[in-house]
Amino acid sequence: MELRVIGSVSSPLTDPAAAPKQGDEGAPEAVLEIAAEFAPGLKDISAGEDVLVLTWLDRADRDVLAVHPRDDATRPETGVFATRSADRPNPIGLHRVRVLDVEGRRLRVDALEAVDGTPVLDLKPVLEAVGER
Amino acid sequence: MELRVIGSVSSPLTDPAAAPKQGDEGAPEAVLEIAAEFAPGLKDISAGEDVLVLTWLDRADRDVLAVHPRDDATRPETGVFATRSADRPNPIGLHRVRVLDVEGRRLRVDALEAVDGTPVLDLKPVLEAVGER
């Protein structure tokens, strides 16, 4: 069960400690640069769509099972699976973004809290209502 | 970048071809059995909550980059990242479920389309509104 890196995040964010905790907390625009070998998988993604981006949060501590949510020491320690902490056994980041434009293998997205260089694992469409699938 | 299996799905579904494509398309209840070493991460997950389950769809074809959506040959071939196909470079399943009850390391959930034995990688809470994080 080895992951394949399909691309990486290009972002003005470089310091994880200073990055917003979620995209909707002031995260900047970013570009997803997809590797040439995986580019055929991007066909049919267009500007204006909302997509889920899965990343590998490679600076995370994979041995942590409890954290103070949002790094707030006044909040009680909570099991990692009940939080969005990056520290967890499989540090897979899940980010909902809007695609602003697609230029070949580069997708510009509206707001992403992942730092520059974060590996991208997958993209998925947001599911529509049952009848529209 | 190697994944750790934190648990597995226990489900009456055994045939992937017969399984619903999404949880809200008639999928049965299932139990997530979390391994003892990761059980401390479950603390603070309770019945009634909606969670995102990440699984590893281990029967997927990882070399596929385009599919006919929903296995419907009349629909044009589409890039896998614009679909929810299990076949994709990193076959990570993403499932939104409601927790029905928690009994030690066993979480019963309302509707999951993953087949029996599917490895579980992660659980995450559904994000609340910004002010309630």
Uncertain regions of chain A: pLDDT < 50 for 5+ in a row? none
Number of strands of chain A: 8
Can you identify the CATH superfamily of the domain at 7-60 and 91-126 in chain A? YaeB-like
Give the strand order of the largest sheet of chain A, numbering strands 1, 2, ... along the chain.
1-2-7-6-3-8
* Ends distance of chain A: 29 Å
Task: Name the chain pair whose interface involves the most residues.
Answer: A-B, 48 and 48 residues
Mean pLDDT rating of chain A: 94
Strand content of the residues of chain A, in percent? 25-35%
Helix content of chain A: under 10%
Report the CATH topology name of the domain at 7-60 and 91-126 in chain A. Answer: Elongation Factor Tu (Ef-tu), domain 3
Radius of gyration of chain A: 16 Å
* General form of chain A: globular
Largest β-sheet summary of chain A: 6 strands, antiparallel, barrel
So, CATH architecture of the domain at 7-60 and 91-126 in chain A?
A: Beta Barrel
Number of helices of chain A: 0
In N-to-C order, the SSE pattern of chain A is EEEEEEEE
The CATH class name of the domain at 7-60 and 91-126 in chain A reads Mainly Beta
SS content category of chain A: mainly beta
Oligomeric description of these chains = homodimer
Describe the model.
- 2 copies of one chain form a homodimer.
- Chain A is mostly beta strands.
- The first copy, chain A, has a domain at 7-60 and 91-126: Beta Barrel (Elongation Factor Tu (Ef-tu), domain 3).
- Helix content of chain A is 0%, strand content 32%.
- A 6-stranded antiparallel β-barrel of chain A has the order 1-2-7-6-3-8.
- In chain A, strand 6 (92-103) and strand 7 (106-109) form a beta hairpin.
- Chain A is globular and about 45 Å long.
